[in-house]
Amino acid sequence: MTEPVRPTHSTIDHEQPEVRTNRRAKQTPLEQMGGASGLVYTMLPIVAFVLANASLGLTSAIGTAIGVALALSVLRLVRKEPVQPALSGLFGVAVASFVAWKTGSAKGFFLLGIWSNLLFGGLFLLSVLVRRPLAGIVWGALNGTGTAWLRDKPSRRYYDIATLTLTGVFAARFLVQQWLYEEDATGWLAFAKIAMGYPLLALALLVVLWAARSAGKRLKAQGVSTPSVRTATLTTTSEDK
């Protein structure tokens, strides 16, 4: 009796990247950002800081926020969850706490985030002006779909819309939170940072998903393959010259 043919290692290795790419493409915007746990991990240090500052003062609030962020990192490590989001959050809390300590004001905890929104908003807007919309560049890098869409004007327009949507999110965050900062409304600053964080970003990612699918359909209809990010970028650069 003939034994069934088993897949070789080379076949398995060839299919695994495609499976991982399809899995990432099917993820919801919330899953792309770390899921519900990622939202909770982002909120807890901020809430802890505001509550501790109201009852114990700035120094205790800084220690509490860093302690909560560190505990969340350890929890993810123990639960064998991806620790990169937690470590990034811990770094962000540490830097924000340092700014609050240097300024001697609780509202300084939010200063870095406020100006980061202005910086990112400017970068995303600039990328549209130079015809390299960052929404498409980042999406292609994260999902391995490349940048072949740059040579198709309608596809690039889809990503222009997605990039401008993200620009609007960053601009709204900066305007609202900067106004609250000037009003010394620390509690409302915390609320705005949470409310305008993942929820607004999730809505913007829906637009990015729409752009990616629309561009993908156009390229597929045209019979255009999606090479690796490096190959597509080098091809596009040489054509621009």
Q: What's the topology here?
A:
Elements: H1 9-25, H2 29-32, H3 35-56, H4 58-78, H5 84-103, H6 111-129, H7 134-143, H8 153-182, H9 186-195, H10 198-221, H11 229-240
Walk me through the structure.
The protein is mainly α and about 240 residues long. The chain has two domains: about 30-105; about 110-240. It has helices at about 10-25, 30, 35-55, 60-80, 85-105, 110-130, 135-145, 155-180, 185-195, 200-220, 230-240.
Could you list some keywords that capture this structure?
2 domains, mainly alpha, 241 residues
Structure in a nutshell:
By secondary structure, this protein is mainly α.
> Span from first to last CA?
62 Å
The low-pLDDT segments are 7-25, 228-239
Oligomerization: single chain
- Characterize the largest beta sheet: strand count, sense, and whether it forms a barrel: none
Helix count equals 11
Shape: elongated
Q: Into which percent range does the helicity of residues fall?
A: over 70%
Count of individual domains: 2
Number of beta-strand segments: 0
Strand content: under 5%
Alpha-carbon Rg, integer: 22 Å
Mean pLDDT: 80
Helix-strand topology string = HHHHHHHHHHH
Query: Pairing-aware structural class of the strands and helices?
Result: mainly alpha
